[in-house]
Amino acid sequence: MSDVLQLFSLSFVVFTLLLFLRAALHKAFDLLEFQGFVADYDLLPEALVKPASYLLITLELLTVALLLFSASRSLGLLLAAALLCLYGAAILLNLRRGHTRIECGCGGTPQLLNRNLLLRNAVLVVLALLPVAITPHASGSIDVAVAVLAGVCLWVLYALLEQINATHAALTSKRV
Questions:
Q1: b vs e for 98-127, b when ≥16 Cβ sit within 10 Å of the residue's Cβ?
Q2: Which strand (E) or helix (H) includes residue 62?
Q3: Which helix (H) or strand (E) holds 139?
Q4: What percent of the chain has pLDDT over 90?
């Protein structure tokens, strides 16, 4: 049973790596748009928006790099969880302010802020922290291949769910 848990754990590492790679690249390739999203959250003085945007992208890329190596994997997972908590706090603060017409800026399917994003981030934090508690280990190349494929499948499922959530939110907002 512990072998299965370790494979799941490695799958969650792969999923988290892909999640942060996609997010960082999406933000980096449209930096001006991302800076606009950071500004829209209205959490920083205007002078800090650009440096904060660069810092967030750098931290996401650092997360990816740390996740690549077993020696730094736990640190990468903790950084991933911390970033997800930070993003969740920013979303929660703006939802409490009544600011829902803000693009999430999460690095994927465009979505306006909503409570579902808080639930999503909470689940992502758990998925990032599980491999810290259950050290991922694969005993052979087949185990690694299975874990990587499972992580990719999780990421594809996540992308599909994100698209469904964004479509639902868009349809709901048009009815209002």
A1: eeeebebbbbbbebebbeebbebbeebbeb
A2: helix 46-68
A3: none
A4: 70
pLDDT in tens, 105-120: 887 777 889 898 999 9
Distance from C-alpha of 159 to C-alpha of 12, rounded to nearest angstrom: 15
How long a stretch of residues is the chain?
A: 176
Residues sharing a CB contact under 8 Å with residue 115, sequence separation 6 or more, in sequence order: 95
* Whether the Cβ atoms of residue 57 and residue 24 lie closer than 8 Å to each other: yes
In sequence order, what are the beta bridge partners of 103? 112
Closest CA to 56 of 14, 95, 97, 107: 107
Q: How far apart are CA 67 and CA 16, in angstroms?
A: 8
Domain ranges within the chain, ordered by starting residue = 2-175
Task: Answer whether residue 160 shows pLDDT above 60.
Answer: yes
Model confidence, pTM: 0.91
**Position 161, amino acid:** L
Q: Contact 118/92 with Cβ under 8 angstroms?
A: yes
